[in-house]
From TrEMBL, chain A:
Signal peptide: none annotated. This is Fe-S cluster assembly protein SufD. It holds the Pfam family SUFBD_core. InterPro entries: Fe-S_cluster_assembly_SufBD, SUF_FeS_clus_asmbl_SufBD_core, SUF_FeS_clus_asmbl_SufBD_sf, SUF_FeS_clus_asmbl_SufD, SufBD_N. Belongs to the iron-sulfur cluster assembly SufBD family. Residues 182-408 form the SUF system FeS cluster assembly SufBD core domain. NCBIfam families: sufD. Residues 7-170 form the SUF system FeS cluster assembly SufBD N-terminal domain.
UniProtKB/TrEMBL annotation, chain B:
GO terms for molecular function: ATP binding; ATP hydrolysis activity. Residues 5-249 form the ABC transporter domain. This is Cysteine desulfurase. It comes from Archangium violaceum Cb vi76. Pfam families: ABC_tran. The gene is sufC.
């Protein structure tokens, strides 16, 4: 954490604020200013902080990433066609963090669903102060602060009470990879009204190998009885950096599910901050992280059982090869009056090489007495007996390893409740997991 | 005629202890040879060594299969050459579909034989046909390999795999253990249907019961890592009547390991 690095980001944010001050409403200027102030106060995290124990962010803070304004280019269109999920539902395309209207599809939304680019909504002077930053506060971390300081791009999604959205809303965040310092700071803000239903997909994909930094924040607020499924595919290039914070607040009797598949990035961290804002909520958090080479994949979750009668189910699985490192830090807080909490957390890691590493860190703080809380964490290797069984039937060692590794990942991939995304993930895994190719040679 | 399998002076160590202390055995093509012995006598060790499990260390001896040096081959190469072992304790493999597993196995071998791989449809048809042999319900094929199968279902699944893979040598390690009488009938029916002049079998069992259904050409008794007696099928009956202790000093193994 060189001061030089922090200074770059502070200068950047000050310039950004000054350039956009004219015409910006007071709340927006104050919001960005608070981001700058928090970034200056906290600085980038060091491994001395509990929450950053395993992850060294100096490759990010030590480089001069900056926002890049891109123009719509022909090459990007092909990438969008290849990477967007099939279907006719709403699609928002961002290139290096910059919303590209021409590549997006926002017509024909069902009644009750509004989806807008954040930049356009701000330009139109929409009063967004109650929405933006309601869950992700600038003091959460330096990265949340940086995202706030550079607030401009992203999306606003509103679902009216009782509206059931038949098709998922997809966000495709493309890192072009040809500009070597692109910083994208998208913020997606979602309001799901009472008893509404919505599925969101955020795909972060590198169109070409390159060094970029995505610092994303998503905030989801669920009304009473709402059901929101948030799916995230992090498949940036393996030279890219990615920090993503998903912040959710669950209303009474609402259901929130997050499924995060983390495959790309030299360094990627996915945070989920989930808080029960009323009784009776159900929260599912699932994650799969698959690393090879020298990838560092960090998974950090915080489940705040702040009210009684809520349940949470958490399952994170990691597959790590070569010198890759995966970390899982799962906090669960059961507050004193959150009686009849039912919480289960599981983290399982599969190491495919001697040098691969996994850190599993469940952290439960239970302050109520009438609760059911279970957690478990494992770090292991492929089962030798199962390998032998497969090989004794004529399956090569490499193919047997591949079968068992896919089987391990399948528990999470198979639970992704959207077939088109599941297919995409399976195709990516078929290319990434070891053994498959050798096995067929 | 040359033997299909020829084991000469086989010594095996496991966990620092000598478990097989010089096994000699020949198996002719089409021959069914039963190996009986008390618990702990080394029956599973022999099965596992023949199929290539590397936790067992061969310290002396050789094994020729079809004229080739079996012990220098990888487990998958042995399978491709026609060796099949039905496990005493079949392994559960969550997340790997039974049918997909078996098609992968069959196609791996077909590739080495220069044959075209079977696609999912063709394989399904083959699997349906073969599953009738042991009355294994279609539902089991869609499930994960052995996961949540009862003891009997696991053993039927082993014989089903053998039927699909059509080995030259089948080593059946206590395929009868844990089966009730109905399941035993079904499983032995499957085994008998797979007997042929081109297929030899080592039928390993603790009890004589299985041999009433699968009648062997020869019976050997394994005790304390040695073959102490070899004879015709009558030997099994005699053992049943008199117990392993009858074989005399050193033959009685530890009883009833879990
Ligand atoms: N993997 C192993 N580790 C340690 N000891 C073993 C292992 N496998 C077998 N043994 C020992 O070798 C001996 C023979 O075992 P086994 O071949 O399983 O006998 P059987 O199948 O005839 O009951 C026993 O004393 C057993 O405890
Ligand atoms: Mg045994």
């Amino acid at each position: 954490m060189t001061d030089v690095g922090l200074q770059h980001y502070l200068d950047l944010a000050e310039r950004f604020q000054a350039e956009r001050a004219a015409g910006a409403p007071a709340w927006l200027r104050a919001f960005r200013q608070e981001g700058i102030a928090q970034l200056a106060r906290q600085g980038f995290p060091t491994s001395k902080l509990e929450d950053w124990k395993y992850t060294n962010v100096s490759p990010i803070s030590g480089q001069s990433f900056s926002p890049v304004r891109t123009v719509h280019e022909a090459g990007v269109e092909a990438a969008v066609a290849r990477l967007a999920l099939p279907g006719t539902g709403p699609l928002l395309v961002f290139v290096d963090g910059w919303y590209v209207r021409e590549l997006s599809r926002l017509e024909g939304l069902p009644a009750g669903l509004t989806v807008r680019s954040l930049r356009e909504a701000l330009q139109d002077g929409e009063p967004l102060e109650a929405l933006v930053g309601s869950r992700a506060r600038a003091d959460a971390s330096a990265f949340t602060a940086l995202n706030a300081a550079l607030l401009e791009e992203g999306a606003v999604v509103r679902v009216a009470p009782g509206t059931v959205c038949p098709e998922p809303v997809q966000f495709l965040f493309l890192s072009r990879g040809d500009t070597h310092v692109a910083l994208a700071s998208p913020r997606v803000v979602v309001r799901a009204g009472d008893n509404s239903e919505l599925t969101l997909v955020e795909s972060y994909v590198g169109a070409a190998p390159g060094v970029s930094f995505t610092n994303a924040v998503t905030e989801v607020v669920l009304g009473t009885g709402a059901r929101v499924t948030h799916l995230k595919l992090q498949a940036e290039s393996e030279t890219a950096f990615h920090i993503g914070g998903l912040h959710a607040e669950l209303g009474r009797d609402s259901r929130f599910a997050s499924h995060i598949i983390s495959l790309g990035g030299a360094l990627a961290r996915n945070e989920v901050h989930s808080v029960f804002g009323a009784e009776g909520g159900e929260c599912t958090l699932q994650g799969l992280y698959v690393g090879h080479g020298t990838q560092h994949l960090d998974n950090w979750t915080n489940l705040d059982h702040a009210h009684p009668r809520c349940s949470s189910r958490e399952l994170y699985k990691g597959v790590l090869d070569d010198k890759a490192r995966g970390t899982f830090h799962g906090k669960v807080l059961v507050r004193p009056d959150a009686q009849q909490t039912d919480s289960r957390q599981s983290n399982r890691n599969l190491l495919l090489s001697e040098a691969a590493m996994a850190d599993a860190r469940p952290q439960l703080e239970i302050l109520a007495d009438d609760v059911k809380c279970a957690h478990g964490a494992t770090v292991g290797r492929l089962d030798e007996q199962a390998l032998f069984y497969l090989r004794s039937r004529g399956i090569s060692r490499a193919e047997a390893e591949s079968l068992l590794t896919h089987a391990f990942a399948k528990e999470v991939v198979g639970a992704v409740p959207l077939a088109s995304l599941r297919d995409q993930v399976e195709a990516l895994l078929a290319r990434k997991l070891p053994g498959a190719k050798e096995g067929r040679a | 005629m040359k033997p299909l399998l020829s084991i000469k002076g086989l010594h095996v160590r496991v966990a620092g202890r000598e478990v097989l202390k010089g096994i000699d055995l020949e198996l002719m093509p089409g021959e069914v040879h039963a190996i009986m012995g008390p618990n702990g006598s080394g029956k599973s060790t022999l099965s596992q060594v023949l199929s290539g499990r590397d936790t067992y260390e061969v310290t002396k001896g050789e094994v020729l299969f079809d004229g080739k040096d079996l012990l220098s081959m990888q487990p998958e190469e042995r399978a491709h050459a026609g060796v099949f072992m039905a496990f005493q304790y079949p392994v559960e493999i969550p997340g790997v579909g039974n049918l997909h597993f078996l098609r992968t196995a069959l196609n791996a071998r077909r590739r080495t034989e220069g044959k075209e791989e079977l696609d999912a449809m063709d394989f399904l048809q083959l699997a349906r046909e073969k599953s009738k042999l042991v009355q294994l319900d279609q539902a089991f094929m869609q499930r994960s390999v052995n996961e949540g199968f009862s003891g009997g279902e696991k053993k039927r699944n082993e014989i089903f795999q053998m039927a699909v893979l059509e080995p030259k040598l089948a080593i059946l390690d206590e395929t009868d253990s844990g089966l009730d009488i109905d399941a035993l009938r079904i499983v032995s029916g499957g085994i008998n249907a797979l007997r042929s002049a081109e297929r030899s079998m080592l039928v390993i069992t603790h009890y004589q019961r299985l041999l009433e259904y699968v009648v062997p050409d020869k019976v050997s008794v394994l005790a304390n890592g040695r073959i102490v007696s070899t004879g015709g099928k009558e030997l099994a009956l005699e053992l049943e009547k008199k117990g392993y202790a009858w074989l005399g000093q050193g033959a009685g193994g530890k009883e009833a390991r879990p």
